[in-house]
Amino acid sequence: MGKLNDDAKELLNQPIHGWVTTLRPDGSLHSTVVWVAVDGDDVIFNTAVGRAKERHLRANPQVSLSVLDPKDAFHLVSVSGVGELELEGADEVIDGLAKKYLGVETYPYRQPGEQRVTVRIRPEQVIYSAGS
After folding, report:
1. From CA 5, how far away is CA 14, in angstroms rounded?
2. How far apart, in whole angstroms, are the C-alpha atoms of residue 68 and residue 12?
3. Which GO molecular function entries does the Swiss-Prot or TrEMBL record give (predicted)?
4. Residue 1 in this model has a pLDDT that exceeds 70
């Protein structure tokens, strides 16, 4: 099992966008940009029920998430593992991410009837580079 060191957590806690990769039903890769946070030793991001990421993870929970420091192209962290979908507390998570990335108290892009879901990655593999 992989483990995030304190430096990797510090990078993930910065308001830097991450790239998450899931597997489509045909086995091809699907990558999208996400807001990222650390919760204990886990990495989390948030999406909405019915979106591609959520559908893919329900069918195959394998997921990878990477963050690259915009000030140093060799300072990065990449985490892969199983994505666990959590409905409880997901609205609070997206609001916290909106504060981190936008500086606002509540997520401004919520759609009527949208149900948020948090994806929790318990790291199985971690790649960390401290940079140049």
Report:
1. 15
2. 9
3. coenzyme F420 binding; oxidoreductase activity, acting on the CH-CH group of donors
4. no
What global pTM score does this model have? 0.94
Superfamily of domain 6-130: Electron Transport, Fmn-binding Protein; Chain A (2.30.110.10)
Residue 76 near residue 68 (C-beta atoms within 8 A): yes
pLDDT digits (tens, 9 = 90+) for 42-63: 999 999 999 999 999 999 999 9
Q: What value, to the nearest 5°, has the Cα angle with vertex 59 and ends 56 and 63?
A: 55
How far, CA to CA in Å, does 41 sit from each of 6, 107, 122?
Answer: 10, 24, 7
Token output for 96: 């916290």
- The fraction of the chain above a pLDDT of 90, given in percent, is 97
Q: What is the pLDDT of residues 65-89, one digit of tens each?
A: 999 999 999 999 999 999 999 999 9
Pairwise CA distance, residues 96 & 83, whole Å: 20
